[in-house]
Amino acid sequence: MVQNEHFLNVADSLKPSLIEKSVVPLDMESHRQRMLSKGDTLRLDFGNHFVGKVTLKFGFTGSHPDAPAWIRLKFAERECELLENAETYRGWISMGWIQQEQLHIDVLPSEITLPRRYAFRYLQLEVLDVSSKYQLKLEEAACVATTSADDLQLRPYLGTPRQMQLDKIACHTLRECMQNVFEDGPKRDRRLWMGDLRMQALANYETFRNYDLVKRCLYLFAGTMLDGGRIGACLFTEPEIEVDDTVMFDYSLFYIPTLLDYYKATGDMETLKELAPTALHQIEVVQPYFGEDHLVKDSDVLGWCFVDWNLGLNKQASAQGIYLYCLKAAIEMTQILGINTQTLKEDFAAKKAAAELLWNGSFYVSGDNQQISWASQVWMVLGGAMHGNAELLERLERTSAEAMVTPYMYHNYIDALLTVGEKEKALQVLDRYWGGMLDAGADTFWELYNPQNPNESPYGGAIVNSYCHAWSCAPAYFLRRFFTSEAL
Ligand code: RAM
Fold first, then answer.
1. CA-nearest residue, atom 5 of ligand 1
2. How far apart are CA 214 and CA 204, in angstroms?
3. In what order do the strands lie in the sheet with 234-236?
4. Prediction pTM value
5. What DSSP letter does each residue of 442-470 carry, written as one string?
6. Residue 455 pLDDT class (50, 70, 90 cuts)
């Protein structure tokens, strides 16, 4: 691990103070009237998605409690999560993420503030047992909700009623993920991921405009790096700032466009100058992944290159496209800084020519089995590959190419459509895809949404999926940036 104290100090000086708001469930009065015995449940609805700490005040009726009240609490971002059974989850990421507790209340009445922070709209209380001599009552419930997004800064947006709904949900998603850093999701993993940051920052520039939070995150990544000066895929913020040991080809590279976007949004030359060496170094860091033919190697060498949560996806072609995309940003950055761009330009030409080794006459194919995927074509378009044009994306629609499953990948697809001038199509896709979540009752947009398989999870169980994931706040970015009357 490589620490840079100066960068970490700058990041620390930009730590936001969280804005707090106390919220109570809808219809608390009627919940208060309920006398709860063994087996009874109470479902609280806080009316919207919130992130915060919860306090519950319990009382009783009947005789003096002669045994503890034993309860189970389930917190859910979507109501359907309450139907899931945590005990049957056998997936590959920790059950520890499941927002469920059991509690013994030894003394009644009492007020309990739960130690964890939760991301939720619904809270279900189930009485596992009380004695037959008394009944439990929930007298008060409240959540101190936090965010670092300042609604006073939120720029107004005017579109069609449906677009305004999409934008509102996207803004709320972003709001909930804006805490001490841009978290990927406040339920899980609750940390700063590079790929997520790129998209959150773009939406933030069009909405809450918290430039300092982006700057803080950029300094954090540069302040705690992997060996060899490599930007980590993600980092932990507690108890200390520390880069995770996860290495990802694409996430290291995304530091470059994220810094460039920040500069374009703010004009902050000082930050660009200070962080550019770290950013440009990422180009060198990934060179060992390329063969002498300038083509990125397949997964045995490439390792983890995220791209999307489609577990059957081969990433080789996407990686080549992502590299080109980030190299374009690096070239632009050096031009702004007045640094010699020649070597980077030569590298771009070589890698662009190499991308054609994957061209089969109709599509860019990926890996040994020559897989055709949406992701590969989208990234070749974004990277500026030779055949990366509107026809390529159009042709894809008539294939059974490997699908996209996350709003993260759909963001890139919309970006690709805009790149090739398919504005109307981009709007249609945005409306259909994010509108699907809206129609399913989303308060915030999800980590994963596959219209073909609504219960899909890359983790072996939807109970650990995150339903407020800021890489899905694309509607706020695209609608405001490209489709308002000023933008058109
Ligand atoms: C998910 C995280 C994050 C993403 C990584 C690759 O587990 O929540 O959003 O960047 O995957």
1. 193
2. 9
3. 192-193, 234-236, 242-243
4. 0.97
5. -SS--S---TT-TT--TTS-GGG--SS-G
6. confident
Which atom from ligand 1 is nearest to the alpha carbon of 93? 7
Mean of pLDDT over the chain: 97
Q: How large is the average pLDDT for residues 261-279? A: 98
Helix (H, G, I), strand (E, B) or coil at 52: strand
Closest residue (by CA) to atom 6 of ligand 1?
A: 306
User: Is the CB of residue 193 below 6 angstroms from any atom belonging to ligand 1?
Assistant: yes
Residue 407 CB contacts under 8 Å (≥ 6 apart), including other chains = 433, 434, 445, 446, 447, 448, 449, 469, 471, 472, 474
**485 pLDDT band (50/70/90 cuts)?**
confident
- Other Cβ atoms less than 10 A from the Cβ of 10: the count is 20
Q: Answer whether 446 contacts ligand 1 (Cβ < 6 A).
A: no
CA distance 381 to 379: 5
Cα separation, 426 vs 378, in Å, equals 13
Q: What is the mean pLDDT of residues 85-96?
A: 94
Q: Which of 183, 196, 221 to mutate to test the pocket of ligand 1 (most atoms within 8 A of CB)?
A: 196
Task: Give per-residue pLDDT as tens, 157-200.
Answer: 999 999 999 999 999 999 999 999 999 999 999 999 999 999 99
- Residue 404 has φ and ψ, to the nearest 5°, of -95, 140
